[in-house]
Amino acid sequence: CGGDEAGLRKHFVTTPLWKPNVTTGADGVAEVRFKLPDNLTTFQIMAVVDADAGSFGSDSHELEVSRPLMAQPALPRLLRTGDMAFAGIVVHNNTDEERDVLVTAEVSGLSLNGAPRTVRMAANSAKEVAFELRDPQPGTAELLFVVSAGEHRDAVKITLPVHRPRPVETVATAGSTTETATDQIAPVTGAQEGVGGLEVKLSPTVLVGSDASISYLLDYPHGCLEQVS
Question: Which residue from 62, 71, 128, 211 has the highest number of Cβ atoms inside 10 Å of its Cβ?
Answer without folding.
Answer: 71
